[in-house]
């Protein structure tokens, strides 16, 4: 996560991640001595009215073996549920239930004990439903 920066700022960064087995890697390889950079340009954002009132991003990684993550975005705080369903439409488990705060949140989906195959993440609010496909290895 890189917070918003003012125009003209040069941002230097690298990525560090730890796998479920405990192995840690960095990118680029010589990080933190080496890093990537980008320059922040002028405002190219969209107005709040152009942001969807409700969105469910594509799960990643997809296919997943241990965990998948999905982004849920709302324009205003909203009560929602996210249910993992199998290909027949049966509920497998509730992934999230509660209030999504304004903006974007990332939600973890534990798929470690699931059989390989196709599943669906279904996000419901009072008046809308969105569905995204998730493959489990």
Could you explain how this protein is built, in words?
- This protein has 137 residues and is an all-beta fold.
- It is 0% helix and 51% strand.
- The chain contains no helices and 11 strands.
- Strands 8-7-10-11 form a 4-stranded antiparallel beta sheet, with no helix packed on it.
- The model has no long low-confidence stretch (mean pLDDT 88).
Rg, Å, rounded = 18 Å
The biggest sheet amounts to: 4 strands, antiparallel
Order of helices and strands: EEEEEEEEEEE
Tally the helices. 0
User: How much helical structure, as a percent, in the residues?
Assistant: under 10%
Distance from N terminus to C terminus (CA atoms, Å) equals 28 Å
The helix-and-strand class reads mainly beta
Give the low-pLDDT segments.
none
SSE blueprint and pairings:
Elements: E1 10-13, E2 15-18, E3 24-27, E4 36-39, E5 54-56, E6 67-74, E7 78-86, E8 91-100, E9 103-110, E10 117-124, E11 129-136
Antiparallel strand pairs: 1-4, 2-3, 5-6, 6-9, 7-8, 7-10, 10-11
Quick rundown:
The chain has no helices and 11 strands. It has strands at 10-13, 15-18, 24-27, 36-39, 54-56, 67-74, 78-86, 91-100, 103-110, 117-124, 129-136.
